[in-house]
Design a protein that fits this description.
It contains nine helices and no strands. It is mainly alpha-helical and 165 residues long.
């Protein structure tokens, strides 16, 4: 099998190590699987969860009875687990302490953009309010996962940090 050397950012390398550890596979195996699926369109969380929607019966809030909840679980494969955890982290993760601060906006940028590309792609671009708004809306449509309240925070940060020259 040929060998390939790949340069990764520290964030990408950390994600790769975490995925490999979680799936108990080598980093090479994780990368090969990602390449095998790279041409395929990733299913949305709704698509991945469709077989399970409406299948559960029980109290409205299953967290009130955890032992009963265990019986309703579904087995997920590694891809479904990753999709679900990414979604939950983006939508239900810890709230930003200072949503309007530059540090919080930079964290939003890193969390939502580096899943698909390096930050160099962002830092090499400039734009005004409308241009950055269009970019953020387009990327969010492709799965960046920003909440509606975080979009203006990120757009303002991008306008301030990478203004039109």
């Amino acid at each position: 099998m040929p060998t390939v050397t790949v340069k990764l950012s520290q964030t990408e390398f950390s994600k790769l190590e975490a995925l490999a550890a979680a799936s108990r596979r080598t980093k090479s195996a994780v990368l090969r699987e990602a390449l095998a699926h790279s041409g395929k369109k990733s299913p949305s969380l709704l698509h991945a969860m469709r077989p399970y929607i409406g299948k559960l019966r029980g109290p409205g809030d299953l967290s009130t009875n955890k032992s009963r909840m265990k019986g309703y679980g579904a087995t997920l494969n590694a891809a479904q687990t990753t999709t679900l955890l990414d979604y939950l982290e983006k939508t239900q993760g810890p709230k930003q302490q200072a949503a309007n601060s530059d540090a919080a906006a930079k964290a939003l940028l890193e969390a939502s953009c580096t899943g698909c590309h390096d930050l160099d792609l962002v830092s090499n671009r400039t734009g005004n309010q409308a241009e950055w708004q269009e970019v953020v809306d387009r990327m969010n449509g492709r799965g960046a996962g920003l909440s509606e309240k975080d979009v203006p925070v990120l757009v303002q940060y991008l306008v301030k940090t990478y203004p039109k020259k």
